[in-house]
Design brief:
The complex is a heterodimer of chains A (202) and B (620). With 202 residues, chain A is of the alpha/beta class. Chain A is built from 8 helices and 6 strands. In chain A, α1 crosses α6, α1 packs across α7 and α5 crosses α6. Classes of the chains: A alpha/beta (202), B alpha/beta (620).
Chain lengths: 202, 620
């Protein structure tokens, strides 16, 4: 990884994109990095596109990541992964939830939902780790665990140990509701395993 | 939701620019803070409301917020108000006179410009107000500076007895960075000094104050030439020296780490002589400012050669990948953009109304009506302009739906003679600026039907309270507006005021149709709460019985995001007409059981489902 790590997290309003990025930031802060985080989420709860950007390193000036500058793309939704593919730098990695959220304009028949966005990304020569985080979260009993599953999956792609991120996840959710600690620990590990399995299969 | 930092002890905290401003306002010993919520400024006073050792309020609009702050300043208290860029247009009437009176207790106005337009109707540059109103403008470039410049702004305000504008942009307000904070100081107000010549701005009193304002301008021009808020960052590559401020400063430093930079912290008045000296120290000067060529023009007027908007875009953010190629062109070089795959074409995903939003029924009903002109306003319900409703014809500014509708009614010619004119406005927007427009409609007997969508919240900005909710900024019970009575007081006849449940589509349709036929002002108030606030109670969800669904797609036209098309088909009718069919399912986990989609479903294919755990994909 370069001296500065650029992470772009994307998804749809309401999925927990901003919270996930916040937790990634907390992990980086705990290691003493300078950190900046920003987002475009004016319509965050209204089903619009949400992207959150995280940069950390020795000193961070601009908070923004340009096209071709992201080390890691964490996509909570597969069409959004395709939409933001151009942000990845050569050799960067995309982590993609294969779950889909179909917007009203597609239901109305005005636009098609892309067929197999992950396949399209691979055809572009990108390194993609794809798995169904939504199903894993549902399997664990709550779709809201989806962002922890995604964080678990990203934990081995970061320039610091997975345990640092896991601690940040548990601190965040445990602080609000102690009973959520176990569920989130499980979700985090499920995400890690899913990516390890996917990486072997791919 | 921003983190609440009620820690009295100094600490290094990860704060957004808004959080940082709030922290500094509290530390400065401020006693009064007021705002009307508006992206990207909303969180400042929202965060401040959690610090209980100062008074905070949601005001009716930005002008009132500024007047509240001025009142506090008059009695010697430190005072603060916040608004988005368009809010300063509303507050400007008060601003333009308080710059003549001056202030007592430090008065800071945080104005958040939406550079890049994430959620606003225009992209205006509020730095102009500094020149127009003769007040200083400070421009922080990240959270740490948002914090330190807020403290500096109070000092400056008290030294020069002038309100100070803290100009923020979206990329300051909504960027988080690390901030070293301090402790709160207590500032005891000096008390009000009766002095009509100072505070009563009749011409006889105001005239002698104008020269004082010009004296203050001169003192501020001297201050800016020595202020530590303006600084030069030395650089080894002297081919281009940058003059910049705000978020653009960080972008410049990122893109050109070796270049000398003149950083404007106190950008109004601009430190012209220091800039002249800086210009002489570099081969060429480039002004990087968001968004208008304001400093550039001032430099040129002072005879200082510079580049600016001749090479840089006039609109939107000046991020590193915009700056690099522009500067390369200036230097006669070519910079290859970073290597990456081409941007992929994917369907647009515009924001839409929430599952079960009470506005869905209103826009569905309006979309089914013909010969209608719909004058819209600012809020969630502006989304009615989108698919599938396409049921909004205008949207200008807070409260403008009223006057615009009246103007259309009065100005219409034969082509529009048979059209019905409807104005749509939310509860908070109505109180912000809509009431005056409605009064104009009634007084001038405009043939306008007003739909007042009372969802008991400032929905768009996150559900803040207003006088219609009967709660204050802390959630404490307060007086509650009765909209029917208010509209009656504004001149709408009692018989022309209806309160309607927006989930009862036939009643809604009938009421709108009848009222639009009657040639006098009427108001139809809808009365169901925003689904994102606590007042909303979800009930048993619905599901589609597949064997009954005929694919008519009526339910899709309602626009609820919980309805998904599973299969499309085409049939040819006996008449030879081709009909598209859309077979649907309901995302039962997201459905809250509002029952809107049930009503247009002729074959009664939508039935209650067994209760399941709510997934809350869309809802908080």
């Amino acid at each position: 990884m370069s001296q500065i790590t650029n992470i772009l997290v994307c998804g749809v309003g309401g999925q927990g994109v901003m919270t996930a990025t916040e937790i990634l930031a907390e992990a980086a802060i705990s290691l003493g990095f300078d950190v900046k985080k920003t987002e475009v989420a004016g319509m965050s709860q209204r089903g619009g596109v949400v992207t959150s950007q995280l940069r950390f390193g020795k000193e961070i000036r601009s908070p923004q990541i340009g096209p071709g500058e992201a080390d890691l793309l964490v996509a909570f939704e597969s069409a959004e992964a395709l939409r933001w593919s151009h942000m990845l730098k050569p050799g960067g990695v995309a982590l993609v939830n294969t779950g889909c959220i179909v917007p009203p304009v597609v239901n109305l028949g005005l636009f098609p939902y892309p067929e197999d966005p992950v396949d399209k990304m691979r055809a572009l020569g990108l390194t993609v780790h794809a798995f169904d985080a939504t199903s894993i979260a549902l399997g664990l009993g709550n779709i809201r665990l989806g962002n922890t599953v995604m964080l678990g999956a990203s934990s081995d792609l970061l320039p610091f140990p997975a345990g640092v991120l896991r601690d940040a996840v548990l601190a965040r959710f445990g602080a609000r509701k102690p009973q959520l600690v176990e569920a989130n620990r499980e979700a985090f590990e499920a995400g890690r395993k899913a990516v390890a399995g996917e990486a072997v299969a791919a | 939701m921003p983190v609440s930092q009620t820690l009295p002890a100094p600490a290094r905290l990860f704060l957004s620019g808004n959080d940082a401003v709030a922290r500094a306002v509290w530390e400065a010993g401020t006693r009064v803070a007021a705002a009307y919520p508006g992206t990207p400024s909303t969180e400042i006073v929202e965060v401040l409301s959690r610090y209980l050792d100062l008074y905070t309020e949601w005001s009716i609009n930005e002008k009132v917020a500024l007047e509240v702050a001025l009142g506090a300043s008059m009695v010697g208290a430190r005072a603060f108000c916040a608004m988005k860029h368009v809010g300063l247009n509303v507050a400007s009437d008060a601003l333009m006179t308080m710059t003549v009176t001056g202030t007592e207790g430090g008065l800071v106005i945080a104005v958040a410009d939406d550079v890049g337009m994430s959620s606003s109707q225009n992209e205006q540059d509020s730095r102009y107000w500094g020149r127009f109103a003769h007040v200083p403008v400070l421009e922080p470039s990240d959270s740490q500076e948002a914090y330190s410049m807020t403290l500096a702004a109070f000092e400056l305000s008290e030294r020069f007895r002038v309100p100070v504008i803290l100009r923020l942009t979206t990329r300051i307000c909504h960027v988080k960075g690390l901030v070293q904070t301090g402790s709160r100081i207590e500032v005891e107000p000096a008390g009000f000094v009766k002095d009509p010549r100072h505070w009563v701005m009749v011409p006889g009193n105001a005239k002698p104050r104008l020269p004082k304002m010009l004296e203050r301008d001169a003192a501020l021009r001297a201050e800016t030439e020595v202020s530590p808020l303006n600084e030069v960052i030395e650089g080894s590559d002297r081919r281009i020296g940058f003059v910049t401020s705000g978020a653009a400063f960080m972008h410049v430093r990122d893109a050109f780490p070796d270049a000398p930079v003149f950083k404007l912290g106190l950008s109004c008045p601009a430190p012209i002589e220091r800039l002249r000296a800086f210009a002489a120290s570099v081969d060429a000067l480039l002004v990087v400012e968001e968004t208008e060529p304001l400093i550039e023009t001032e430099l040129k007027a002072a005879g200082i050669a510079c580049h600016g908007k001749d090479v840089l875009p006039r609109l939107h953010e000046l991020v590193p990948d915009v700056l690099k190629p522009a500067v390369a062109r200036l230097q006669g070089e070519v910079v290859e953009p970073p290597e990456h795959v081409a941007a992929q074409q994917v369907f647009p995903r515009p924001p839409t109304m929430c599952v079960a939003c009470p506005h869905l029924g209103v826009y569905y009903t309006l979309s089914q009506m013909r010969n209608i002109i719909i004058s819209g306003d600012i809020g969630c319900y502006t989304l009615g302009a989108g698919h599938p409703w396409n049921a909004l014809d205008t949207c200008i500014s807070m409260g403008a739906s009223m006057g615009t509708a009246l103007g259309m009614d009065k100005g219409r010619g034969a082509a529009d003679a048979n059209k019905k004119i409807v104005a749509v406005i939310g509860d908070s927007t109505f109180m912000h600026m809509g009431m005056q427009g409605l009064l104009d409609i009634t007084w001038n007997r405009g043939n306008v039907t007003v739909l007042l969508l009372d969802n008991r919240a400032v929905g768009m900005t996150g559900g803040q309270d207003n006088p219609g909710t009967g709660r204050d900024i802390h959630g404490e019970e307060r007086s509650r507006v009765d909209f029917a009575q208010l509209c009656e007081a504004l001149g709408v006849r009692r018989e022309r005021i209806h309160v309607v449940d927006p989930y009862q589509l036939p009643v809604l349709f009938k009421t709108i149709r009848e009222e639009t036929k009657i040639e006098e002002p009427s108001v139809i108030i809808t009365n169901r709460p925003c689904v994102l606030i606590d007042d909303y109670k979800p009930t048993q969800p619905y599901m589609v019985q597949e064997d009954r669904c005929t694919g008519c797609g009526n339910c899709v036209e309602v626009g609820c995001p919980a309805i998904h098309v599973t299969r499309r088909d085409k049939v040819v009718k006996a008449s030879g007409k081709e009909v598209d069919l859309s077979f649907v399912r309901i995302e039962t986990s997201a459905c809250t059981g509002c029952g809107l989609c049930v009503q247009p479903c002729a074959p009664e294919a939508i039935q209650h489902a067994a209760p399941v755990q709510t997934l809350q994909f869309i809802r908080k």
